[in-house]
Amino acid sequence: MDSGAPADANESxxxxxxxxxxxxxxxxxxxxxxxxAEGSFVYDTAGRAILDFTSGQMSAxxxxxHPAIVRTVQAQIGRLDxxxxxxxxxxxxxxxxxxxxxxxxxxxxxxxxxxxxxxxxAIRLAKIVTGKHEIxxxxxxxxxxxxxxxxxTYSAARRGYGPVAVGSFAIPAPNAYRPRFTxxxxxxxxxxxLDDAFxxxxxxxxxxxxxxxxxxILSSGGIIxxxxxxxxxxxxxxxERGMLLILDEAQTxxxxxxxxxxxxxxxxxxxxxxxxxxxxAGLPLSAVLTSSxxxxxxxxxxxxxxxxxxxxxxxxxxxxxxLDVVEQEGLIARAQVAGKRLxxxxxxxxxxxxxxxxxxxxxxxxGLEIVADRAARAxxxxxxxxxxxxxxxRGLSMNIVKLPAMGxxxxxxxxxxxxxxxxxxxxxxxxxxxxxxxR
Length: 439
Ligand SMILES: Cc1ncc(COP(=O)(O)O)c(C=O)c1O
Description:
Largest sheet: 7 strands, mixed
CATH topology of the largest domain: Aspartate Aminotransferase, domain 2
Bound molecules: pyridoxal-5'-phosphate
Radius of gyration: 22 Å
Number of strands: 18
């Protein structure tokens, strides 16, 4: 085990520059300089390997520096990089065609750069098509840091920035580990919860409900999976009110949960789908997908969403390669198989360690919740911190979500290309880290 201290005394200039010039934008910086990354590992300047169980920022589904992505970027940047927004190129049109052929009802595609941006566009689309403006989301959601996306983000970063959009409402997400409404046997009664939540939305609405925006598995909210049947019921609530259903599959899209899109398990097609993080496998690429009918109405009403990079061939070429590699390497099926292995390993850890209260999620997007008391399900934030630090010191990067009243949840989302050996190594490090954190 290494100390986790700076790799090299010569790096003091680096840390001076960090304190003097790098704006602190939220997370506490890892005290080591990252130099390169390959496959499932990132390496610091001392050459120490860190197994990346969060795919960078939950994005690198192909691992780092996948040879096919490296080839695409090198070839594309030398040929055609960036374009005037009114010009079209083959990579852009081909990516729209490929994405728009994946799911009937989502034929039309807009390519953008970030997840927040894709949700801005989706919300604008819903507003212009419905002629209304109220947006409902889950109270533990994360949809991005820009205007409308931030107004629909309730899990964090809400205080201190002044008013959000008029007509922003939230409902609780169904939480099987901490149910608010229960059947007589104590299990989650999500239908009653949903009815109750929409009664409250209706009483607050001024009759201008435009859309509900949801993650099929709330990730930043602590890996809260919508139970089977919930999405269909939510879509029905939307239909009854003339609202559109927007699904944000920033983290769940492109195979991570064992389907191309998480909504496919439920057989419910959203009116609008947003993709980001996993679509570019770590490069800035996002997309908005919708039906031809919705696109037609929006166009008739003068829909505009013009950005600097809306027609860039370089990220589009990367997106095409991501889809190719996912198909060629069978990564959707791999997410199912590897997900089962990882889950079995996490459940074995749960048998061994009292502090693991819950294991949840789907495919290769799993959550591990750390509690002080299994019966009371009381979250143990300090223990979660210690485990994360012990894991990092042993060469495993895991991301912990710490939200008041939500618990301390590790979000485990390794690349879909991870090998069985690497998964097992990660589980071993986790066991060592938990044992050390308990001492
Ligand atoms: C579900 C979801 N949507 C949207 C976003 C925002 O994406 P970006 O940071 O690329 O704007 C995130 C980022 O964490 C996310 O998890």
